[in-house]
Amino acid sequence: MDNRAIGFFDSGLGGLTSVQEMHEQLPNEKVIYYGDTARTPYGSKSPATIRKFATQIVDYLVSKDVKMIIIACNTVTSMALDPLRERYPNIPILGVIEPTVKKVVNDRCTSVGVIATKATISSNVYGDNLKQANPDIEVYSLACPAFVPLVEEGIIDNEIMELMIKYYMDDFVTNNAFNNLILGCTHYPIIAGQIKQLYPGIKLYNSSAEVIREAKQYLEENDMLAENSSIKDRYYASDLSENFIAMTELLFKDRESKIKLVELRN
Question: What number of other Cβ atoms are within 10 A of residue 22's Cβ?
């Protein structure tokens, strides 16, 4: 048993989809979440900058005595997971990519599409990991850089987002032979409903859900599950944007009433 909180972080509000999954799969666990809303999006930044930002955030979460850290961001996972594990070898740090790849391979998919940020697609981390696990799988990748800023601005369930999805994905879906699609950014589950409605024949894989399944297994195997506790989830951000506050209020009724502003610097 370990009643300490689990640390989550993302470039903004997308990682809240992982927290939502954790509340469903592990309702006794408590959260310390950091959203780097002042510096979002990460997807167009250099690998060195992404690693610097991620290290600052993990250092902060470790100072809060978390028992596990979940990188609720595909871009950070692709660029910084190994360096962060080397920096903190005694704290389990999970990324969203490995569990998603494992699920796709276990489901014996023969072809899969991947949509993600420019940084994640440029790294080819999904393609490399999928090919390593199954050399025969066909992988088709597409960067969708406008999705994250639109979600961060709250432009979600409307015609603008639908047009943007079609702009990126119509040719991608038509010209490539896949019927499974990895949502390779934790912001993307927020628009999964529109994607599914536009392309109903495609099965979606949600990296936010898969990393929580991995976390649950790890906590069970290491006797680290929490008991029910009166401790509240805590949310921190580098900029208190209206959309970040509104999203936490919509998704999580039991968070502390005030999201705390924490700016991280070198």
Answer: 24
d(CA 146, CA 149): 6
* C-alpha–C-alpha distance, residues 148 and 188, integer Å: 8
CATH of domain 6-95+210-261: 3.40.50.1860
Q: Per-domain residue ranges for the chain?
A: 6-95+210-261, 98-208
Q: Looking at residue 254, what is its pLDDT?
A: 62
Rounded to whole angstroms, how far apart are CA atoms 29 and 233?
9
| CATH class of residue range 98-208 | alpha beta
Tell me the three state secondary structure of residue 208: helix
98-208: same fold as 6-95+210-261? Answer: yes
**Burial group, residue 216, by CB count within 10 angstroms (0-12, 13-18, 19+):** middle
The helix (run of H) or strand (run of E) holding residue 250 is helix 242-251
Residue 109 designated active-site: no
What is the distance between the alpha carbons of residues 5 and 203, in angstroms, rounded to a whole number? 33
Among 73, 130, 143, 151, which one carries the catalytic annotation?
73
- Residue 257 has a pLDDT of 61
Phi, psi of 249 (to 5 degrees): -65, -35
- pLDDT tens readout for residues 24-46: 999 999 999 999 999 988 988 99
DSSP string, 56-96: HHHHHHHHTT-SEEEE--HHHHHHHHHHHHHH-TTS-EEES
Q: What is the pLDDT of residues 150-205, one digit of tens each?
A: 998 889 888 999 999 999 999 999 999 999 999 999 999 999 999 999 999 999 99
Active-site annotation holder among 54, 185, 237, 259: 185
